[in-house]
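TASK: fixed-backbone design
INPUT:
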């Protein structure tokens, strides 16, 4: 039974938040945490970008079944915490859930660059930033 749920939030729910969700699931294993993702301006139903699928697969994460969902759809389930990639993601989440902790995914408060439409090298850099941030956040939550 899941006792906590973490929502990762980005813009389109095609690159960053699916990567964060997939990496978190991969790293947390069988821990009692549910992970999900959504977008503030999601292209609902679309798969993760081919580049996101590729860079995720390079580290053993499978995003092939991911389908984008909106923040509104995510709002049906009250998360325990929300982690956004940029400040405007946090603002949208705070409007939705006044009593849920909402923070930048990167604990230092730096935004995580959107690789959408960029070369594969940018996706790898974004994946690296997300993986490092997720590891830190999981240590906080599961440590």
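OUTPUT:
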């Amino acid at each position: 039974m899941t006792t906590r749920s973490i929502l990762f939030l980005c813009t389109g729910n095609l690159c960053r938040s699916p990567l964060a969700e997939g990496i978190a699931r991969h790293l947390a294993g069988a821990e009692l945490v549910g992970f999900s993702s959504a977008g503030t301006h999601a292209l609902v139903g679309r798969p993760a970008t081919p580049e996101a699928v590729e860079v995720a697969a390079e580290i053993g994460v499978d995003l092939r079944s991911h389908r984008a969902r909106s923040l509104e759809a995510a709002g049906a389930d009250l998360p325990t915490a929300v982690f956004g990639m940029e400040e405007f993601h946090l603002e949208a989440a705070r409007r939705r859930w006044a009593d849920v902790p909402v923070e930048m995914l990167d604990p230092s408060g730096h935004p995580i660059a959107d690789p959408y439409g960029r070369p594969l090298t940018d996706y790898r850099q974004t994946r690296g930033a997300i993986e490092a941030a997720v590891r830190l956040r999981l240590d906080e939550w599961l440590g």
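COMMENT: The chain has a mean pLDDT of 93.
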